[in-house]
């Protein structure tokens, strides 16, 4: 990222401001990693990587950038995120430690044991931080008289964003599903002389072609099934992503639901997706120019 930012910043005056921001946050990652892990030798998550140190560097670099740019709105939102994230992580890890040690009611009642409290820690962390970020966004939105008007023709940027969200991210995520199925011997005999893995690859390529076609038709204004107002498009995209990954993760472990910890995780995923869907269905019908 740092190398790309430097090249783009030198080559294109149009993208120089964006390249400068990318260079600052990429440099912040290297600064945080080299200082905290390289120089001070802090290794908090063995055997995993020490990307946490780079993330601290990114946050510090971003805050410095926002202060110099006098972007008080983004600073406010970053503060909400940092504070609620810290509270969420502490609360979530507290619950995880209770689950691992079997302390209190968890040790007393068999039904509360072996519920994969690592996953519960992640969900509590995300829930509390999500609430905090939402409160910050609500405070910012209250001070905005009207949404900004789109600047120029942004179809190429929209095509890139939708391709990343609906094609690249699912490809990167669901490749692990195929690997998991192979490791657990869930692939059977070849079909028409072609192995199951190649059939799955063919289906994935076909779905990608269909998705790219739908994106191009939408950006060309030739897809009536996509809402015309920005709020409707955002809601549809949110629901598509939520259900895509809930169902995708469920297909990965559907044959391993005999463990109550795995079952509890996936039941909570489905309940969360249904709750998000209900929130979208009953959200105020305000039109937004997004």
Keywords for this entry:
single chain; 290 residues; mainly alpha; 73% helix; 0% strand; globular
Percentage of helical residues? over 70%
Q: Assess the beta-strand content as a share of residues.
A: under 5%
Query: What is the strand tally?
Result: 0
Structural class: mainly alpha
Helical run tally: 10
Order of helices and strands: HHHHHHHHHH
Q: How far apart lie the N and C ends?
A: 28 Å
The average pLDDT score comes to: 87
Query: What is the CA-based Rg, rounded?
Result: 23 Å
**Unreliable parts:** none
Can you characterise this structure?
The two termini are 28 Å apart. The radius of gyration is 23 Å and the shape is globular. The chain contains 10 helices and no strands. With 290 residues, it is mostly helical. The model has no long low-confidence stretch (mean pLDDT 87).
The gist of it:
The protein is mainly alpha-helical. It is 73% helix and 0% strand.
Strand and helix layout:
Layout lengths: L1 H10 L4 H24 L11 H19 L2 H30 L3 H4 L8 H26 L12 H29 L12 H24 L10 H24 L6 H22 L9
Helix pairs in contact: 1-2, 2-3, 4-6, 7-8, 7-9, 9-10
